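[step 3/7] fold_predict: job queued, chain A
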Amino acid sequence: MANVYDILKERGFVEQVTNEDGLRQALEQPLTCYIGYDPSAASLHAGSLLTIMALAHLQRQGHRPIFIVGGGTGMIGDPSGRTEMRQVLSLEQVEENRLAIKAQLSHYIAFDDEQALILNNAEWLLPWRYIDFLREIGQHFSVNRMLAAEAYRSRLERGLSFIEFNYQLLQAYDYLTLYRTYGCTLQLGGNDQWGNILAGVDLIRRVEGVEVYALTFPLLTTASGVKMGKTAAGAVWLDAKLLSPFKYYQYWINIEDADVARFLKIYTFLPMEEIEQLASVEGAALRESKEVLAYEATRITHGQAAADDARQRSRELFGDGAAQAAPTTALNIQELDEAVAVAELFCLAGLARSRSEARRLIEQGGAYVNGEPVQDANETLARDALLRNGLLLRAGKKRYQRVVAR
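[step 4/7] structure written:
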């Protein structure tokens, strides 16, 4: 069986690691590893998917992942990568979000027979009394070393609250607790978590006298520099109620050509030989490779039936036929507001003679944007949505118009 460290490195998951040779050797035997998520929303998004896929690879190679959905740390919020303090959530909000995320993770990870665990760090953080925590855990931390960490240093000029300053201690204590209780010897996270993870490695070394490991993933952006999982319309949610499987499929099939190989490695389980073949083509053939990526990513997240439906709808919508032959309207993007009313777009495209007619079309269920029915007559779209492949509008069953920016 291949060493999972080699798999992760070959596929582009590894950014930084403590003691690479030692970790690779440790991964020759089954070990327990963990990653944490703050339950700041009821759904994870495509930006989180890299970490989930890495844990799925680890499990497939016989290792046990632990997911900490931070009911305790989520009440504070991690300052890493932030320019301002995160909103402090109520206990009820944290619990509601935690349960939703737990259900989502089950799409990627097998939790039967304790092959993986989902834990809430509120169980061991909330019972602490402050003075006791400072005496037992706080004594092992240097304020000078903490302030030198990028996560804190970048916030000092704008203001760093004392509650956020405590976050690193809490995350380090999570690692210590998981080591003591479950024998966890590897923590993973985004590269912005490097300082926090190293604090846990150091705490375990000081308190228990043993070496544990840290591995961080790259903070992905698209070839054009857009943060992974973000679009002009907002986040690419993993929850089908927040983003339909069809729109999720469209996100992947519309990625930039330069990202195809990288995203096939990270966001699918396809063999490397097949990925190399899919990424070696150019021109129209690359569209087929993007379709493979979109199908696999949608199947993993939403299931095969949803992926089959999304692929079929996409082919019907953007393949041969009326949609493919749709006339194009080019709009001057500088003359449009940041948010453009869908009703106005239908007028500009010539699919409605007036805004009132466009609104009636929407209210009667006859207006579609990229194959999705428009539900609200007041709906708006970010004008940036026009910049790449444009938008395909449909009025009724057969009247199409493609709208692009110039």
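[step 5/7] annotate
The radius of gyration is 24 Å.
The chain is about 45% helix and 15% strand.
exit 0
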